[in-house]
Design a protein that fits this description.
The chain has two domains: 4-74 and 148-213 and 304-356, FAD/NAD(P)-binding domain; 88-143 and 219-302, D-Amino Acid Oxidase, Chain A, domain 2 (2-Layer Sandwich), CATH 3.30.9.10. Helix content is 30%, strand content 25%. It has nine helices and 17 strands. The strands form three sheets. The protein has an eight-stranded mixed beta sheet with strand order 4-5-3-12-13-14-11-15, sandwiched between helices. A six-stranded mixed beta sheet has the order 6-2-1-10-17-16, with helices on one face. A three-stranded antiparallel beta sheet has the order 7-8-9, with no helix packed on it. Helix 1 (11-22) packs parallel to helix 6 and helix 3 packs across helix 9.
Amino acid sequence: MSDCIIVGGGISGLLVARELAGAGLDVTLLERGSTGREASWAGGGILSPLVPWRADPAITRLVGWSQAHYAALSADLAAQTGIDPEWTPSGLLTLGGLDAEMALAWAQDAGQRLEALTPPEALEIEPALAHVGTCALWMPDVAQIRNPRLLRALRHAVEQLGVRVQEDTEVRGIAVHDGRVRGVRTAQGRFEAPTVVVAGGAWTGQLLSGLRHAPAIGPVHGQMILFRAAPGRLRRIVIRDGRYLIPRRDGRVLAGSTVEFTGFDKRPTSAAHDELYDAALALVPALAEATVERHWAGLRPGAPAGVPYIGEHPEVAGLFINAGHYRNGLVLGPASAHLLADLILGRAPIVDPAPYGFAAARA
């Protein structure tokens, strides 16, 4: 029997496994498919909400903690596993339809560097842009992570810490007796532990639907395309009207993303491909010379107001949840995992956990 079972092998589950195993717990991680191959892999890796000044304050608090620790996390994983997650401070340039006064006030309160730029100043920061319009906002400290590399590094790291990772193991139910969790039920049999963490992404609400106070988490479909361009073609992360471009170190450029409500259907569509392609070229016309290398889709774990559930179930002792991060799973991952480990291990929490609990008001 393990000390803890973690259900879900995405960024949330792997980071919780790293925290708990690093604290000396015996941990088993169960993944319904392959580790890191759902929303965590499908996302872009921007280490910021797309429009951070409009985010719920509960999200902002976790974002700040994660941003302050990501560079060290990436370096530690690279040293431990030999896989560099490529933490890169690209900066974030936001164009069009902006409330500059709101953004500047938010940045001052949040302790973030943010500048309002004229169009010539924005083009100096990112010369590849077709045009800027009337306003641009620049956040020079925003970084990105190459999420597939991060997930591979985390998988290696947790196994080095002794975590048992079992893939192709779908959890079909939570075993509860006398108000306390006892383990989980799978097609391969029952796994027992006094603590269970559900970090099942978009499937979390479905898995816990048989319990009272089930979390309001469901799938939100998102599609992306990947250009293979020359290194340096684009230098900065650029966002306009919900569409973004992310330049990787090797020259590849990610273009995303759609927001669709199609249930658990995550098939990519030609209409989304064309929409993303047109939006990318409208931002950076030189991408017309690049090849579209890939097109894929994933399912984000949507929750009310985008605020994740992080904490213990109110009626089942030992049953914890770390899910519902919507579009911010990568940037919230380190803080969410650390906060959940604080609650499980009885440590002083890094932030007030109340906004993330089952009883929190969620719009």
